[in-house]
Amino acid sequence: MNNISVDDYAAESNKDNESGNYFNNLDKIINNLQPPSEIPKTKKTNKFLKKTAIISFITFISILLSLLIFYGFKKIKPVQISNITIDKLWQYKTLSSIYSSPLIIDINNDKVNDILINSMDGKLYAIDGISGKRLFYFETKNPILSSPAILKKSKKEKWLILAGQDNTIYAIDSNNHCVWSTIKQDLDSAIISTPIITKINHDSIPDVIAAARDGKIYAFDGDRGWLIWKSRETTGDFFSTPLLININNDNIKDIIIGSPEKKIYGIDGKTGFKIWETCSSGSISSSPVLYDNSTIFLEDEYGILYKIHDNTGSIIHQVP
């Protein structure tokens, strides 16, 4: 291999650059480079080389990402949505404010989802999903804050479950007929949280569970509206919707709910008895959330997030 001086490289580069043969010049330089003398390898040298290689790689990646972010974002143009027109398909106005979330389901079996919404005017509205026209409405005696729930009695037959502030729970079929309603002897408290539907008494029809403002959890038979049980060891003006989870492995889902009186309850779904009770730092009016089928999260009035074990109710962690 022939040695070439730096001056010779410069002279060759100028000639080649003038003739446009830059890459030919680069090939000559590479071909005539002398390899460095071999560095004697020791354990310290190997460690040093490894550390140097890692640091160099991290530095390279950091610089590359910085360049991509800096120059890439400059070239990315924001999406223009000013030219997109969103057409209003329809609107329907109730006689008062709406605080609840709508329920989207095909109530009239025309294979198109409809909208079911409760209003503070005391009515449940069923609105056609295509035309926006009212299919029917069901009237109660007081404003409704909760959302409607759906009880599927069969593949074709669906009942709407409505809980209002008139101390009554209603089951309404798709023809706007009241199939059943609770009686005052069984329920004498307003409900502002959304009822939940689950099977409790081992028959073919799901049942109804609701948390009331008298601090009790109620379970009603889904077919007739009869009281199955009510909790007697819970307190608080319940605002939130309970969470369903099988705590005691009896194939019946149990109830988790937070109380404004700084308590978190685990209630047996079969009997209504308290399985466990946990204290929180502040009152709880938000609904619990289930993660990974076994871990429960709740938040209190101070913004403290609780991670709770489902079987024992013990607080695993809290933030902050």
Can you offer a commentary on this structure?
This protein is α+β, with helices and mostly antiparallel strands. The chain folds into 3 domains: 1-33, no CATH class; 88-197, Thrombin, subunit H (Beta Barrel), CATH 2.40.10; 231-320, Thrombin, subunit H. 18% of the residues lie in helices and 28% in strands. A 4-stranded antiparallel β-sheet has the order 1-2-3-4, with no helix packed on it. α1 packs antiparallel against α2 (22-31). The protein is globular, with a radius of gyration of 34 Å. It starts with 5 loop residues before the first helix and ends with a strand.
User: Order of helices and strands, N to C?
Assistant: HHHEEEEEEEEEEEEEEEEEEEE
Total number of β-strand segments? 20
Helical segment tally?
Answer: 3
Question: Strand count, sense and closure of the main sheet?
Answer: 4 strands, antiparallel
* Biggest sheet: strand arrangement: 1-2-3-4
